[in-house]
Design goal:
Elements (H helix, E strand, L loop, with lengths): L1 H18 L4 H22 L4 H16 L6 H24 L4 H17 L4 H20 L7 H22 L4 H28 L5 H29 L3 H29 L27 H18 L8 H12 L11 H25 L9 H16 L18 H23 L5 H11 L5 H29 L3 H18 L4 H18 L5 H24 L5 H27 L7 H18 L1 H4 L6 H28 L13 H20 L14 H4 L15 H21 L9
Helix pairs in contact: 1-8, 2-3, 2-7, 2-18, 3-6, 3-7, 4-6, 4-7, 5-6, 5-15, 8-9, 8-10, 8-11, 9-10, 10-13, 10-24, 11-12, 11-13, 12-13, 12-14, 15-16, 15-20, 16-17, 16-20, 17-19, 17-20, 18-19, 21-22, 21-24, 21-25, 22-24, 24-27, 25-27
Length: 748
């Protein structure tokens, strides 16, 4: 019974870890709620009135979510500096309370400084945010000189409570977060394998849904890999450990994605395109309507289940005879003589399962330490020896990056500060015309729509989502206010629940987060005895006005149009892609080793930024359907290119340790065409060389002239390397059409 209970808890934990990688959202929500609850409890013991309870709760929330420094020591310093900033902000608000014009001017200046301070890193961002939010808090509770001492006390109590929640009750270290991220990666890897099993079994009616699940889970696995990459430096003991984890995570990600492609190919009469895994709505290959129903497919299904078990099995159970048998069988598929009799494409699936099992073995060794080797077969021993050789060959070089930051009004922080200031000034004027008491809601909305946005289109979409969430939140607020009435602590309990939901859903849905914020405010108005239908209607009007002012300021003042933003990021992605491809091919050709995995992750991060910036173009409400489809197609093609570039980089880093992959100088000429085409597309998009054409010609394999080195045609280059190069070449040429780049006709 105890074992069954542990198994259920482990499954639930794995699902939670996969849904919330690193438990970052859960931790953020719990920490904020804990800080607020501590503040409310402390204020209640002092007999504070409801206004101070509300003020203390809001101050504790700000003190918790504003601090984002990576190390605990820096977090403590930022929190300590935040208290005098908060006290200064509330003092100035009380001083300027009766001076409308002076107060409005100061608020605009404060907004400019708060946004401009982002250029000084996490601490500058936090202090600016605390200053703005506490000033807004003072407007919300209508602070005056007589009430200032009580508010001082509430804020002075909120910050220590936030510190207690952060450092003692709900601590979060980089090492602990990384450890949870590793678990999330394995959970998501197991979910991807599970989706691949469903794809294998899916019939004609279920295949589209099964393929969509594979796409979604492949993207989630990639997201986890990127998050781990961002935590490696702070969360590991030394650089060599970080490099090892990075390598093994990359191997597992590539092996899992490749296995999905091989399964798609096995279902059909033709080789599946990598684009199928990245483009929603992309059709299966022509023969993919009916799943394979034979002995080989049953064996594949059994082995995929075994692979999933290898991924999820907890540490300490790896010595089990059954698990060792499964591991040995799957790793045996890496030997040609162990492959079941089947067609070539089906045998490729078994090879892919073997490579995935090897990647899982490497991942477990890197994350959990040495494993039991007593039952190893020769195939397993060989895999371990390869992993050990790769571990020894992993270097720790740093990739020097050049900071090309803009200056003056072109600097993002300066431009955003000017835009928000202008938008806020408009929001103040319009907001006071709507309501002399609630005008600050328009300013808050204008401020918020600029956070984490970089173009007019992004601001428009964010404003629309905030307004939509506000409308639904007002309806919920009306219902809750009637149910709660004057039950103060019931209302505060619901406020805590909504705050947790707000932080937990923020990365998932901005509309949902806005809903919880507005519903919470309805309860706060009830507590302050200022609730009425007209107040909530004004809330909607001020929100719409603030969003409109933000969009207007972004469109008129130093505008960054969506096309310009996406083009800049597209050029960045193409430059990174060319860099990775050039370095990988050079190393595969016998060149000097480079830091390929770091470059590949730089490409992934640039692609993630581009994908986020295209949301205004791909949003369901956009009227430009053709433009939306083009944006999705381009991003999917780039994801395909990134996959093949990652695979080339991972293969190139195996050269010192894997004798089956040897450097071949002929590849340098093969890769030159691909790199030149990428640079030609980047030049066309950046308008540097608009007349340059993309070259086409013979297949990649045919460019390797046999006999150059008196060796067999593929004696020094694996078929997998050629396949990745060929697919990358095709995808790069495929980018030319939607981007309007001329393609040269192949010469006869």
């Amino acid at each position: 019974m105890r074992s069954a209970g542990r198994s259920v808890r482990a499954k639930l934990w794995d699902r939670l870890a996969a849904y919330d990688p690193g438990l970052l959202r859960l931790t953020a929500g719990l920490r904020t709620v804990t800080a607020i609850a501590l503040t409310l409890a402390a204020l209640a013991l002092t007999g504070a009135r409801v206004t101070l309870l509300v003020a203390g709760a809001m101050a504790a929330m700000v003190a918790t979510f504003a601090v984002r420094d990576k190390s605990l020591s820096r977090q403590a310093v930022t929190l300590a500096l935040g208290l005098p900033v908060a006290l200064a902000a509330v003092s100035l608000s009380a001083l300027l309370n009766a001076r409308v014009v002076a107060g409005d001017v100061f608020f605009v200046v404060l907004i400019f400084c708060a946004v401009y301070s982002r250029r000084f890193g996490d601490r500058g961002t936090a202090l600016g945010l605390i200053g703005f939010q506490v000033y807004f808090l003072s407007l919300f509770v209508h602070v005056t000189a007589p009430t200032l001492p009580g508010l001082f006390g509430a804020i002075a109590l909120a910050f220590p409570c936030a510190a207690l929640a952060r450092f003692v009750l709900v601590p979060q270290t980089a090492a602990g977060t990384l450890d949870r991220m590793r678990r999330a990666f394995r959970a998501r890897l197991a979910q991807l394998v599970e989706a691949q099993i469903e794809l294998l079994d899916a019939g004609p009616e279920e295949v589209d849904k099964a393929l969509a699940d594979v796409r979604t889970r492949t993207a989630r696995l990639h997201e986890s890999a990127l998050m781990i990459q961002g935590l490696l430096e702070e969360g590991t003991s030394d650089e060599s450990v970080a490099r090892l984890v990075q390598r093994r995570v990359a191997d597992a990600e590539i092996a899992a994605e490749r296995l999905g492609l091989l399964l798609l190919t096995a279902r059909s009469a033709e080789r599946a395109d990598t684009l199928t895994l990245h483009l929603p709505g992309a059709p299966l290959p022509s023969g993919g309507e009916t799943p394979v129903r034979d002995g080989a497919s049953a064996t594949i299904r059994r082995d995929l289940q075994a692979l999933r078990l290898l991924v999820l099995r907890p540490v300490g159970e790896d010595s089990g005879a059954v698990l060792a048998q499964l591991r040995n069988r799957l790793l045996g598929y890496r030997e040609e003589e162990n492959l079941p009799p089947a067609s070539t494409v089906v045998q490729d699936v078994f090879r892919g399962i073997g490579e995935a099992a090897r990647a899982v073995l490497g991942l477990r060794v890197a994350l959990d330490g040495p494993q039991d080797e007593s039952a190893d077969t020769p195939a397993t021993i060989r895999s371990r020896e390869e992993l050990d050789a790769e571990d020894a060959a992993i270097g720790g070089g740093e990739d020097e990056r050049e900071d090309e930051g803009s200056t003056g009004l072109r600097r993002p922080s300066t431009r955003a500060a000017v835009q928000v200031s202008v938008g806020s000034a408009l929001a103040i004027v319009g907001g006071e015309l709507l309501s002399a008491q609630r005008w600050y809601w328009a300013v808050l909305t204008c401020w918020i729509v600029f956070i984490n946005t970089a173009s007019t289109g992004e601001i428009l979409v964010k404003g629309y989502r905030r307004l939509l969430g506000t409308v639904f939140g007002v309806v919920a607020g009306i219902v809750l206010a009637g149910l709660v009435g004057r039950h103060t602590w019931t209302a505060f309990a619901l406020v805590l629940l909504f705050i947790f939901a707000m932080f937990y859903t923020a990365p998932l849905s901005y509309t949902l987060m806005s809903f919880f914020v507005t519903a919470m405010l309805g309860l706060l108005y009830t507590l302050l005895n200022t609730y009425s239908m007209s107040v909530l209607v004004v809330r909607i009007e001020e929100t719409a006005l603030g969003a409109a002012c933000g969009v207007l300021a972004a469109a008129v003042v130093l505008p960054v149009h969506t096309d310009r933003r996406t083009n800049e990021l597209l050029v960045e992605v193409l430059d990174r892609l060319a860099d990775v491809t050039r370095a990988a091919v050079d190393q595969l050709s016998g060149g000097v080793p480079a830091d390929l995995l770091d470059r590949a992750r730089d490409l992934d991060r640039a692609l993630a930024d581009l994908s986020a910036s295209t949301q205004p173009l791909t949003h369901p409400i956009t009227p430009l359907r053709s433009r939306r489809d083009t944006a999705r197609y381009v991003v999917a093609l780039l994801e395909t290119c990134a996959y093949h570039a990652r695979s080339l980089a991972a293969t190139a880093e195996l050269l010192p340790a894997k004798p089956s992959i040897a450097a071949d100088p002929r590849l340098r000429g093969v890769g030159r065409r691909i790199v030149n085409n990428i640079e030609a597309i980047a030049g066309h998009v950046a308008n540097r060389s608009p007349t340059t054409e993309v070259a086409t010609g013979p297949s990649i394999a045919s460019l390797l002239e046999p006999g150059t080195l008196a060796t067999p045609r593929y004696g020094r280059v694996t078929d997998r390397v050629l396949r990745h190069l060929q697919r990358l070449d095709e995808a790069v040429v495929g980018l030319a059409r939607p981007l309007g780049v001329p393609v040269a006709r192949p010469t006869k």
